[in-house]
Specification:
The protein is α+β, with helices and mostly antiparallel strands and 149 residues long. Helix content is 19%, strand content 38%. It has one domain (11-146): Nuclear Transport Factor 2, Chain: A. The protein has a six-stranded mixed β-sheet with strand order 2-1-6-5-4-3. It is globular and about 60 Å long.
């Protein structure tokens, strides 16, 4: 028996996925709200190449970053495409724009320059019924690669 499948999300799934990405961007400095948008075993590789595995490790990494001058670095995300791998797995290709609000003189130490002002952000999202997020989609993996030059 053959089942017709398309890699294009339904309008409802696309809206829910875009809402999840927007929420992740909006909550980037909110330790209480960002980690729950991720699966318990999520893997996140940040702009600087640091890999964090698991929701609890993500929360700890966020607390550490927000207690430093990195709290002044914010981002905005622009979704370029959404593709379903399966009906319950989506890949989101986007561009992350980085806004470095750190002062070079801040605490007497110069801020370490960021590798770039934008990056390619790829999300792998999974649908988990009852997750309580946009359309029950959660972030399973996120990778940001700086765009150099």
């Amino acid at each position: 028996m053959s089942t017709e499948y398309t890699d294009v999300p339904t309008p409802e799934d696309e809206a829910a996925i875009r809402r999840l990405v927007a929420d992740a961007s909006a909550y980037q400095s909110d330790v209480a709200r960002l980690p729950p948008l991720h699966t318990a075993d999520a893997t996140v590789v940040n702009f600087g190449g640091r890999r964090v595995v698991g929701r609890e490790a993500l929360e700890a990494a966020m607390r550490q970053a927000l207690a430093s001058s990195l709290a002044e670095v914010t981002t905005t995300v622009e979704v370029e495409s959404i593709r379903l791998i399966r009906p319950d797995v989506a890949v989101v290709a986007s561009v992350k724009h980085v806004h470095d609000g750190r002062s070079a003189e801040g605490d007497g130490e110069g801020a370490t320059p960021l590798p770039a002002s934008s990056g390619r952000l790829t999300y792998v999202l999974v649908r988990q019924e009852g997750a309580g997020t946009a359309g029950d989609w959660l972030i399973s993996a996120a990778q940001t690669t700086p765009i150099l030059g």
